Structure formats: structure tokens, C-alpha cells
Amino acid sequence: MSTSVEKEMVLPENEVENIELLSSIEDADGGVTVEMKEPMDSKLFASMLGSSLLYWIQQKKRGVWIKLPIEFSNLVEPTVKEGFRYHHAESDYLMLVKWIPETSDTLPANASHRVGIGAFVMNDKGEVLVVQERTGIFKGTNVWKLPTGTVEEGEDICVAAIREVKEETGVDTEFVEVLAFRQSHQSFFQKSDLFFVCMLRPHSFEIQKQDSEIEAAQWMRAEDYVAQPFNQKHEIFKNMAGICLTKSKKNYTGFSKMSSTTSSGKRAYMYFNNRDFEPS
Amino acid sequence: MSTSVEKEMVLPENEVENIELLSSIEDADGGVTVEMKEPMDSKLFASMLGSSLLYWIQQKKRGVWIKLPIEFSNLVEPTVKEGFRYHHAESDYLMLVKWIPETSDTLPANASHRVGIGAFVMNDKGEVLVVQERTGIFKGTNVWKLPTGTVEEGEDICVAAIREVKEETGVDTEFVEVLAFRQSHQSFFQKSDLFFVCMLRPHSFEIQKQDSEIEAAQWMRAEDYVAQPFNQKHEIFKNMAGICLTKSKKNYTGFSKMSSTTSSGKRAYMYFNNRDFEPS
């Protein structure tokens, strides 16, 4: 898509004139998105943005989105000067938005949570797979912890758990259940964390640890894992560890997964108690 | 904190000179954060940033964070030119970061998920609280849906559910359980969604709907809610509705909440099956 397009616009004097505006794509909510693909001089951009805004206002557009790749950081200032606010950023672009109507803004919220997993993997000798990390808050503490990690962009929780165990210890596993989860706030900047403790069933038992991040890895008696002073001292850890031990010994029902399709046709996983409800 | 500070720096010629650098705060991971609080000319900022970077490199700093309030959007371009990438943005600021060491970047990931709730509220006549919305994908469809919404920054899931029901229908409730949750991807930009279906117990029954967003609200026989063609046709909705109905009729155990403290002393909620595990 080229950067500019000619449109007819009715000027204040009621004259119709062809004006060069920024190319945009319309969305389903009555808004438009501009995605800059080529560099542009800041002054020229400011002028075209001003004209485009007048046109979009005449067309009664609602949300105007401008996606600026990091290579075009010279265009951030002129966009802000036209009344746009930041919406979100990734490493290589910044998304800005302006809400045109006078009614309340109904723009989608930014992502607010990071999602992490902890994997509880137990073999048939009652031993749980644990690691000691080279970095992070447990570094140098001698605490044995479950393999943990952050889910990657677009990654499912059940897939992330299997991946983290494989990366950190070399052990192959299969997802069984979500045993519990925890939500905490202001863990980094103003964002929140959701952490899911997942039970996985091992399909291999030989450990090949990831040297760059893992100091040591082993199979450890579950009771010894739970009894560690750190786990006994910190309430959430104590309870999470206790849930894992209970799961290994008796009947604890967590949330199993089921692949499903959303009303828009995308694949999604549902997690629920499948002992008490049988899906159709 | 003033914008600049004088530091001693060893120059390439081995001379020590006092140089004016950007003020920064050190973090626990060997990095520094600069938070711009006053406007600055772009060229002056570029020069001070360049000197500051040399200093931080000499000091063997790791991650360098620069927080730019939207009022200082003129400083984005010079920051990017010094090799910084975007990390995240909120409506009123942009955070940029540069990783100095040659080893792999261990910076925290950006938030990847938006978190939403759906509230299943049932009275003692077997009726569920449902709404029809004025906006969004269900607008004009005549589908009766559960009250839903997005959790706000720093808000707990169990609190968000109660708030949304109160706002949309005026009904007071108490959190009971998370019945199930669903994870989907690419729902907005490259981000993901986690949606928690929560069961709430009503403490009031008179409905006062939120006129701006809600077309209508009522108590509806649970079987009629489940039997709606939309709910029957779409797999996830069918199963979520089925879980709600099962909960209302027999023994379905979801995840109850428990307030707890993290190892860093912050309050957090754990959600787990408290029928099969009794926390200590």
C-alpha cells in the first residue's frame, strides 16, 4: 500500500478539492488504521496527517490508529502534536491512537498481564523434577524450584509448560492439568502477572540441563521438595507445593484442557474441570 | 530528581573529566532507569544521552531504561538513534530500553495478555442474570449474554467480576469460584486474551441497568439461556454455558480464591480447588 492517496474533500468554503491524504485501511468499528511503510519527512507527514484528520472527521470516523515502525521515530512527535496518544509498543513499532467522536472512548485496552507457568513433573518413583537457576531471584539460594517461564507471544499455556521443561531439563512431557493459578500486581512497571502451576506427565527421564540458565537439575523426592525451608516459609509457595503433593497422592482435580473454536473461527484452549462436566 | 548530574568519567585519552550526564536510578539487576521530568531540547538530550551511555558502559551497566512522558515526544527520535528499542507504552508515556552487555538480553517481557471476565450470577429460582449490549459484537443480535468486561490495571479477577455486574445491572454479588477459563490469540494486534468465567452469588436482585452500554437486562431461566441458538451453535459458548448449568444443578468444583502474600510481601490471590486441598 503506498503512503498517500488522493481523496475528494469538502473544504470550509464548500469547495471540493483533491487532497493528498495518508493511505489507510478501514476497520470493523468505524475506524481507520495508517501503517507507515516508507520514510517520510516530518513536516510533510504533519501536513498530510492534518489534512487526513479533517477528512476522517468529515467521514465520521471513530478511532484513528497510526502504526509507526521504529525506523520512523521522527514521525512520533508530529503525530502526538495532532492530539494522538500512545496505545502500545512492541520492540519494533509504536501504535498511537486518536478517538474522534465526542462520546466515550470504546477503544480496546492495552495488554495488562504477563503470563507465566510453573511445571510440576513427577515420575513414578514419587520424585519431582526440580532446578536451580543461574540468574533471577533464586540465584545462589540453593532453593530447588519447579521449572518456570513466561509464555511467548501467541503461545498457549499448555504448550509453554512443555517447552520450558524441555528447554531447561531436556525432559519430554505431556500436559495433564492446571492445578492452580495466582494473580499478582505491579510486578513489573504497572503490569500484572498471572502464573499457572501446571501438572505434566514425563515421557522421558534423562536430564540434560540448559547450561546457560540452569545451575543444576534433578529428580527430588516430592516430600523433600515441599519441606524446603523456603517453601515452608512463603505462604504461596507452601500452598502451591502442597497442592502438587496432594495431586501426586490423592484425588485433586484441576482444570484439564480442551481445544475449541471461538465464534470468529479461531482455535482456542478452554480449561475446566472435566471430571464434573463432560463437553459435547 | 533534576535532569542532569555531574559525574567523573575516564575519557579515551585516560583523562578524567567532569561530564554532565542524565540523572538515573539504579535497579536491582545492574541496570539504570532515566525518567525525564522536564522538557529538553532534542540536540542537548542527544548529546547528554551519548555521554551518559559511555559512562554506563564504563560502569558495566546492563539494561538502560528511558521513560519518556508523551509531552517529551521530541526525545523519542534521538533515543532511538542511540540504539534504544521500544519496550512498552501506556497512553501517557513510552519506555525504551537498551541492553548493553554482549550476553543474551534478560530483560523482562512486555505484557502479552488482556484479561477479561464473564459473570455467572444465579438466583434461588434457577434464573441467571443476563444482558443485551448496545455496542460490540453482540449488538443488535438479540443474544442474551453474561455480563462481561476487561479487568482494569491492577485489578483482581474476583473484584472485576463483582464490579462489572454492579456497573451493568446494579446487582450486588459475592465471588464464589472460577468455573473455567479460555485463552485465545491475536484477538487484538498481536496480543492474547485470557477470559475467566466466574460464578458469583447475588446479594440483591433488583436490576438497574447501565443505560449507556446495556440495552436490556433480566433474570432468565438458566435452561433458556443455555438453549439460545447462538450458545448452541458456538462450541466454546456451548461448553461455557453447559458448565454454568452444571454448576447450578450438581457438584461442579471450580477454583476458589484465597488471599495470600508473595515472597516479596505483596498481596496476591491464589485460585485452586479448595475442596480437594486445604491450605495451611
From TrEMBL, chains A, B:
Coiled-coil intervals: none
All copies of domain Nudix hydrolase, residue ranges: 112-242
Gene3D superfamilies to which the protein is assigned, alphabetical: 3.40.630.30, Nucleoside Triphosphate Pyrophosphohydrolase (3.90.79.10)
Record keyword Thylakoid present: no
InterPro entries: NUDIX_hydrolase-like_dom_sf (IPR015797), Nudix_hydrolase6-like (IPR003293), NUDIX_hydrolase_CS (IPR020084), NUDIX_hydrolase_dom (IPR000086), Pre-Nudix (IPR040618)
CDD domains per the UniProt record, alphabetical: NUDIX_ASFGF2_Nudt6
The keyword Hydrolase belongs to this UniProt entry's keyword annotation: yes
Family per similarity comment: Belongs to the Nudix hydrolase family.
Name of the featured protein: Nudix hydrolase domain-containing protein
Organism: Acer saccharum
